[in-house]
């Protein structure tokens, strides 16, 4: 066995259960049926077609029995009857071919609609979930739900009901016809049925558990694949490829074992029904042979009965496949419902405010917050930023600076106290409206695939190209962006990976400028860019902050010095606040932070090659 494993499967699914506040083992059938309600017409058509097909199938033994008993008499052959019977047989096969295609078409139509609706629902739901959910759930698990698990539902939801109905119909009709020919024939077969019903029930319970474990293990290796793709650089850099591959192989092994175990457990059902079929046939031959000898049964009727025995027992075998599909599909459906049942932690109140404009006064009022219960990150913090004021936030790493931004943009809700915008608790705003008034440019700027212009247009969907370029000129980013290989038409690559960090930041600054929010939140990049890009970014920042309330997690001395006030955050509290001169004069935390920065900058200046940028303050402070 491979030594590398991820977290236990149990803990993953338990976490999802906790997040959705529901348990996995609830009945899903009642929840699956409403899904197919909108496509009842094509499904009804499939059922109708199945009915006609069943009738066509049952016509065959009747016609054959007729030929044997009436067409081939000792007195002579009834040629016209045989010809009509042959034509009838040909017609039943004609119907089978013609309707087979039509049935597939209708089932496909229904499948496309149901799965499309469900996919859209899952996608929309995933987008609605709060940031906290994504912090705790592996991306691959979500992908497994929305992709593979959903595919598994198709054979259950669409082909399942008509096939099940057809099987039940064939079973009942053949039983009835056997009873009509000779009740003793049906009585012989009836002995088989209770055994089969009991076995099917047992099989369903066992198989569902096995397939749930298969679905779980599949999401775990998909999750690992997605994590590897996202962290490919880190894996390469740290030389962990082999260990990472070994972990993947371990997860695959778990998946394969559960698959084999599931298949072995399901595998006994088919031979078991095969055994029952043989027993049923043997019984019919014994009872029918005796009837023939006693003259209570004609040869045609016995032949007909043999057909009916097959038609009676074949559906019993089909049930094995149908129940396997049912077990597999419901195991996946349970997981999809678990995701759909997870309510976003942050949601709009019914009377949420949608103010068209805000002034931009921000207040953190006695705020306490922690990502995990009992582990506060922000502790009773109070801070007010007036409209149009630029506040730089500094402080040691991990003390809660970025968390303040998360709270202001309401990616998380405070545990105690309140964050206010223009005197209103931000929890009373509609999420969309709140975020439309707050522009955010973070350190790890992510761009959407497409061109630079496409990315700028996200902020102003109706703006012309000229308008977008003018905004870029205004903010001082034009020289850099127009110098890209295809200028503004340059493809930025997945998540903007084909642009440099400085270029990405400039695109985001132009985007924020175009969005024209009243409040601006900036997390300055800590890593260095070249001096000219650095100047451009600083200039863009100045233009961007004009006339807006700005909260900047500042790492650069220039940004800090030009801010109206500076707040030093330590241990989730405001340790000091004031302007640069006042804080230096005070000789406290900020003065110490500044001195260490100056020292590092001095050292760096002596060591730096011409053209290299100055170090960021966070580097100096930490
Ligand atoms: N999503 C999260 N889930 C759990 N804990 C988190 C999360 N984000 C941050 N933390 C924790 O909260 C604390 C504060 O983090 P925060 O990002 O606010 O610090 P910071 O002052 O901005 O640090 P830096 O200067 O390094 O960016 C840290 O201890 C961090 O480990």
UniProtKB/TrEMBL annotation:
Residues 51-328 form the ABC transmembrane type-1 domain. Keywords: ATP-binding, Cell membrane, Membrane, Nucleotide-binding, Transmembrane, Transmembrane helix, Transport. The keyword Protein transport does not apply. One of its GO terms (cellular component) is plasma membrane. The keyword Transmembrane applies. The chain crosses the membrane at residues 39-63, 75-95, 176-203, 268-287, 293-316. Gene3D superfamilies: ABC transporter type 1, transmembrane domain, P-loop containing nucleotide triphosphate hydrolases. It is a multi-pass membrane protein. Residues 362-596 form the ABC transporter domain. It is found in: Cell membrane. One of its GO terms (molecular function) is ATP hydrolysis activity. Pfam families: ABC_membrane, ABC_tran. PANTHER family: ATP-BINDING CASSETTE SUB-FAMILY B MEMBER 10, MITOCHONDRIAL (PTHR43394:SF1), ATP-DEPENDENT PERMEASE MDL1, MITOCHONDRIAL (PTHR43394). This is ABC transporter ATP-binding protein. It comes from Sphingobium quisquiliarum P25.
């Amino acid at each position: 066995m491979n030594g590398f494993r991820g977290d236990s499967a149990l803990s993953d699914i338990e976490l999802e259960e906790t997040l959705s506040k529901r348990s996995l083992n609830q009945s899903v059938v009642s929840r699956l049926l409403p899904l197919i309600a909108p496509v009842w017409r094509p499904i009804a058509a499939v059922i109708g077609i199945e009915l006609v097909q069943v009738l066509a199938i049952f016509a065959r033994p009747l016609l054959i029995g007729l030929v044997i008993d009436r067409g081939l008499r000792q007195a002579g052959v009834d040629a016209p009857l045989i010809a009509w019977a042959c034509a009838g047989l040909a017609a039943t096969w004609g119907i089978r071919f013609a309707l087979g295609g039509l049935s597939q078409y209708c089932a496909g139509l229904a499948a496309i609609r149901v799965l499309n609706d469900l996919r859209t629902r899952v996608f929309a739901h995933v987008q609605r979930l709060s940031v906290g959910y994504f912090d705790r759930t592996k991306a691959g698990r979500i992908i497994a739900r929305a992709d593979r698990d959903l595919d598994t539902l198709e054979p259950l939801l669409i082909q399942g009901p008509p096939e099940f109905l057809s099987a039940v119909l064939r079973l009942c009709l053949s039983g009835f016809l056997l009873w009509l020919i000779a009740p003793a024939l049906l009585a012989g077969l009836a002995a088989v049925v209770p055994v089969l019903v009991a076995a099917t029930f047992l099989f369903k319970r066992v198989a569902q558990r096995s397939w749930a474990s298969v679905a779980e293990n599949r999401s775990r290796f998909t999750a690992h694949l997605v994590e590897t793709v996202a962290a490919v650089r880190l894996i390469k850099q740290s030389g962990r490829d082999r260990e990472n591959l070994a972990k993947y192989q371990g997860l695959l092994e778990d998946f394969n074992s559960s698959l084999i175990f599931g298949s072995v457990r399901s595998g006994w059902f088919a031979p078991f029904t095969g055994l029952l079929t043989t027993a049923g046939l043997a019984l019919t031959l014994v009872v029918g042979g005796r009837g023939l000898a006693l003259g209570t049964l004609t040869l045609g009727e016995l032949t007909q009965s043999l057909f009916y025995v097959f038609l009676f027992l074949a559906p019993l075998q089909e049930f094995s496949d149908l129940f396997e599909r049912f077990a597999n599909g419901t195991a996946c459906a349970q997981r999809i419902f678990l995701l759909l049942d997870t309510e976003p932690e942050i949601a709009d109140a019914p009377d949420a405010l949608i103010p068209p404009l805000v002034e931009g006064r921000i207040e953190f009022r006695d705020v306490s917050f922690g990502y995990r219960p009992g582990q506060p990150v922000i502790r009773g913090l109070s801070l007010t930023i007036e409209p149009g004021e630029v506040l730089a936030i500094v402080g040691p790493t991990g003390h809660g600076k970025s968390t303040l931004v998360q709270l202001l943009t309401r990616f998380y809700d405070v545990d105690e106290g309140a964050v206010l915008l223009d005197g209103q608790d931000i929890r009373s705003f509609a999420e969309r409206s709140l975020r439309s008034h707050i522009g955010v440019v973070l350190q790890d700027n992510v761009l959407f695939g497409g061109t630079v212009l496409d990315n700028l247009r996200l902020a102003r969907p109706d703006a012309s190209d000229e308008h977008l370029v003018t905004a870029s000129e205004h903010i001082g980013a034009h020289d850099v962006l127009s110098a890209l290989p295809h200028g503004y038409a340059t493809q930025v690559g997945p998540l903007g990976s084909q642009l440099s960090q400085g270029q990405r930041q400039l695109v985001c600054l132009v985007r924020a400028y175009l969005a024209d929010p009243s409040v601006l939140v900036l997390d300055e990049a800590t890593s260095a860019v070249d001096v000219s890009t650095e100047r451009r970014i600083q200039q863009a920042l100045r233009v961007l902050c004009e006339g807006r309330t700005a909260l900047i997690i500042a790492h650069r001395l220039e940004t800090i010095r030009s801010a109206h006030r500076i707040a030093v955050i330590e241990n989730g509290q405001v340790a000091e606040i004031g302007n640069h001169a006042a804080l230096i004069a005070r000789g406290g935390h900020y003065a110490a932070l500044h001195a260490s920065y100056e020292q590092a900058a001095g050292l760096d200046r002596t060591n730096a090659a011409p053209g290299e940028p100055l170090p960021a303050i966070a580097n100096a402070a930490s």
